[in-house]
Structures are given as structure tokens and as C-alpha cells.
Amino acid sequence: MIEKAPSGAFFVVRDPDVPADLARSSLLAQGVWCRIQSGRAIRNAASLAFTSLLALVPLLTVTFYVLALFPAFSDWTSVLEGFVYSNLMPAAGDQVSAYLYDFADQAHSLPTLGLTGLLVSVLFLLSTIEDAFNDIWRVRKGRSLGRRLAVYLTMIGVGPVIAVIVFWAAYHLLYLPQGQAIPAASYAYGQLFTGFSGLIEFGGFAVLYRVLPNCSIPYRPVIIGALISTVLLEVIKRVFAWYVSSFELYQVIYGALWTIPVFFIWVLFFWYVTLFGACVTAQLSVGKQAEEAGVDKPNGR
Q1: Predicted TM-score (pTM) of this structure
Q2: Does any domain span residue 130?
Q3: Contacts of 160 (CB under 8 A, 6+ apart)
């Protein structure tokens, strides 16, 4: 059962007459709902969707700029581009990807000051995500500016490199065991990884849930939360693709610009899923005693 304290905080109270297994499931569901409400997940999802639209081109530009610093990754950068641009949005992704590719390609010609501005946009996006996660985990104190910069720059610098290494490993595992000749790495080859998008999404969710909140989170809740988010996202991708391809409402109303509102809606749904998974992860990560009492005591780090 859900109760609300005079302070406005929500608490989950266990009913002693309910069987233990059912009570645990009920407490989990009620706890997740409490976090959605008290963590302002719905409002934060809308804020993150808007921020993401502004920071998406800077994020892509900075990501591929980092990879350009490693000449050995030149071929694999094309593979990563092919994967990213072919998985941005169901059904109408090709047109959106073409726009973003052109924008990001033009951004590469910016001077150093312009690239710095793009980096600031990416840092602001990560800061907004961390604040939303801290609301869900009920963390009272966020990281200091120095620690935020250290975490964000590490994610920006190491993340693309790890992604390329994963593609390289999968690239060889797919061909070497079958005795096939390994084709040249290319943009088109990156599109072949679309079937593995679930694994990439799972890894991305796990990193976000483990690293960004300013509290200590066990690995098991992170894995469960990331798995739930991945399954939900894959289901929504298929439903969204069916809806966009079956109904031409947006094409009729917006004409050639129809992909803009549709892409915004898709980004909004993405953040709904992400924050829901964060709520599940946060609820699973609390201790048994705190969970039964309905009280969180996250440790800032």
C-alpha cells in the first residue's frame, strides 16, 4: 500500500496479511510507481527529450571526433556510423539519419572554439541525465563539478573506443569460426549489426544505471533494470515502426517535415523507457529492511 507523509514523500508499507511472494512483487510495483511520481520521471523524460534533440548532433560529432584521434580505428568508425544511423528511429530512420549525418559532417569543419561549444552541449546532456537519475534514486547531493567533468569526459572518451572494440570482436567472431573471408570494414557493414541492437542497448542502459547516479548500485539490479529497459525498447520500436508505416497522419499534416515531430515522439518514448528502467533498478537496489519500511538511504559518492 502507498502512503504519503506530511513532507510530501511517498512510502510503501507492507500489508502483513498478504503472502510473502505476492507482497514482494506488490512492494516492487508500488515502489517503482512511487519513484516515478516522487522522482518526476514523466516530467524529466520530456525535459531529456528536448535536451537530446539539441545535443544529438553535438554528441555524434564529439563521438566520431574522438575516434578520429585514433588512426587505427578509421575503418571501424565507418562501421559504428553505419550502426548508429541505421538504428536511430524505426521506419523513418533513413531520412532522419541522412539529416543528422549531414549536420554532423558539417560540424567537423568547425574551429576549435565551435567544437568546444559542442562538447559543452554533450556535457550538459549528461548532467541533465544524472540529475534525473539522482531524483529517482532520491540522492540529496550530486557530484561536485570536478567529479562530474571527470565522469563525463571518461564516458565520452572511453565509450566510443569500447564500442569500436566490441564491433571489432563481433566482426571476427561472425566470420572466423565459419572459415569465411573477412570483408572490409565499411559503413554498410555497420548496418548488418542491426540484429544485435538489443545487446548494444543492454550495454548502454547498464552503463547509464551503474555510472551516472551518485550512489553505490549493486550489479544485479543494474542487469535486471537494463534487461527490462532493453525488452521494452525493442517492443516499442516494433510498435512504433508499425504505427508510422501504417498511418500517414503526420505525413498529411506536416508534409515534408513530418519526420521532425515523429522523431521527437520517438525520443520521448526512449526516455520514458530509460527512466522506467532506472526506477526499477533503484527500487531493486535498496536493502530489504529499507524496502519493507519504504525508506531509501542512498550513499552519495
Answers
A1: 0.81
A2: yes
A3: 63, 64, 66, 67, 80
